[in-house]
Amino acid sequence: MNEILIRANNISKAFGEVKVLNDISFELKKGNVLSILGPSGSGKSTLLRIITQLERADRGSLYFNDKPLFEDDGSKANYSNNKIAREIGLKTGLVFQNFNLFPHFTVLRNITEAQIAVLKRDKHEAEDRAIALLKKLSLLDKAKAYPSQLSGGQKQRVSIARALAMDPEVLFFDEPTSALDPELTREVLNVIKQLSEEKMTMAVVTHEMEFAKAISDHAIFMEGGYIIEEGDKDSIFTAAEKERTRQFIHSMS
Ligand code: ADP
Ligand code: MG
């Protein structure tokens, strides 16, 4: 049995009066892929933003390797100190729908910047790592290019390389292909698939059902801030219990 890397218990979050996450609980095992499915507005991005510390939870607990990022004390989520939060943050990477590359930096510098600034690697070490990743993602010839000179699929592969350069223990993807044409979608999905074959631990928000089914070990279906159903790949993609889950997967396939 794989070790559990992330354990989320009853995470809740409201924006003002609007509850966008209600008692979200799940586990992610090392080396596994979790897909997070659900219609627009169901809270998927907010969940990823809480896990990657871009947003704060109101209630619930979240553990990485049994260490709490926050823990519910019966009335609210209490966050761990900055040192622990930072330590956990260094283990998580997030790939966005819209790439979020620095437009005024070359591809190479986009990948080395945080390695140097955050991980304190020296420039040579950071460049060696970046070049190895560019090679792996078939982007070596783009090292000196600027983001505006790349296709959407290339931009997204650069942002995946940038995330990998930080040596995260877990990678999160928030609709990584939603901004791409179908033919560019394929090249990005292939990279994520390759990472899953290398046993990278990942959670992926996606509307690409065939892809999700192919790479996931486990899936959760969310709607209206609730987990409607969760289960292993086969139970969700081929034999979902809830009519609503089946209907959603069918409508996206
Ligand atoms: P999804 O990614 O599944 O489409 P989101 O997590 O983006 O869902 O949004 C869930 C709900 O929370 C939506 O109703 C959205 O409008 C609302 N929401 C998200 N971010 C904010 C915010 N910063 N302020 C207020 N409401 C927000
Ligand atoms: Mg979203």
Automatic annotation (TrEMBL):
InterPro entries: AAA+_ATPase, ABC_ATPase_HisP-typ, ABC_transporter-like_ATP-bd, ABC_transporter-like_CS, MetN_ABC_transporter-like, P-loop_NTPase. Keywords: Amino-acid transport, ATP-binding, Cell membrane, Coiled coil, Membrane, Nucleotide-binding, Transport. The keyword Disulfide bond does not apply. It comes from the Bacteria. Residues 6-249 form the ABC transporter domain. Pfam families: ABC_tran (PF00005). It is a peripheral membrane protein. One of its GO terms (molecular function) is ABC-type amino acid transporter activity. SMART domains: AAA (SM00382). It is found in: Cell membrane. Its main location: membrane. PROSITE patterns: ABC_TRANSPORTER_1, ABC_TRANSPORTER_2. Gene3D superfamilies: P-loop containing nucleotide triphosphate hydrolases (3.40.50.300). Residues 109-136 form a coiled coil. GO terms for cellular component: plasma membrane. Belongs to the ABC transporter superfamily. PANTHER family: AMINO ACID IMPORT ATP-BINDING PROTEIN (PTHR43166), GLUTAMATE_ASPARTATE IMPORT ATP-BINDING PROTEIN GLTL (PTHR43166:SF9). This is Amino acid ABC transporter ATP-binding protein. It comes from Bullifex porci.
